[in-house]
Amino acid sequence: MGTRWSRSESTLLLLPEGQRRGGDKDPDNDSLDGHDRREDIAEFPYVEFTGKDSITCPTCQGTGRIPSDQVNELVALIPYNDQRLQPQRTKLYVGLSVVLCLLVSSFVAFFLFPRPVVVVDGGIRTVTVRFDDVNLNVLMNMTSTLNISNPNFFSVLVQSVSCQVLYMKTVIGTQQLNNVTTILPLSESQVNYTVSVEIGSSAPYVYAFCTMPSIKVHNIVILMQTSVKTSYMVRTSQNSLEAFRYIDCGSNTTYHQTL
After folding, report:
1. 152: helix, strand or coil
2. CA torsion sign, 52 to 58 to 60 to 61?
3. CATH second-level architecture of 118-254?
4. Is the pTM of this model over 0.85?
5. Phi and psi of 105, rounded to 5°?
6. Distances (CA, A) of 257 to 123, 125, 128
7. Tens digits of residue pLDDT in 47-96
8. Angle at 126 between CA 123 and CA 132, to 5 degrees
9. How is the chain split into domains, by residue range?
């Protein structure tokens, strides 16, 4: 089969004679259809001729293809002026990404940043008084109120409420509550707790004062120390309150408060 030289840029390829320029056909090959031609071309070996301005591909090994076992070893070089190395609007995309990250960080910090729980002493609501005439003791049950506010965007658990009552620097009653309540986000809850108080052995004169019929109001001063422990977002905080209270130890009392 005859051959001819065809030059494309700087590479010369050896082509079958039936593929001449201008569509000329060899009379001997007129009987071949397109399918037979493609088979002949496929079976024709690849031959690379190097011109004066070109070099032989060292990795093709004369086949025109890169060996499959060298696909991960070879590096393709792209010209410096290739448009693929100059992506459009790079600064715009980078700027938008930075702004988006800042916005997301700000929202996360605003909604998830822990804020301190606010605890306000609501005072004493009721006092129930009993007298132990045998031991000359004054027994009282005092119910107090705490107003707890949650300014966070997540729930807060009130783990414990502890209270200690002192009279003349002497502890006369204590109370401890655990797992009190859960406060919903941006809401407020009211917690009531009762402390049992006994006055007598350390101050026997209090019994005489509280049972004296000639006195209409039997006020005494007590000191209440309250501690509230809360937890939220793997964080634990504690609020401590301290207040002096006047109570009437002579009779049952209910204090009306405006909520």
Report:
1. coil
2. positive
3. Sandwich (2.60)
4. no
5. -65, -40
6. 9, 8, 17
7. 555 555 555 566 666 666 667 777 777 777 777 777 777 777 888 889 99
8. 125
9. 3-76, 118-254
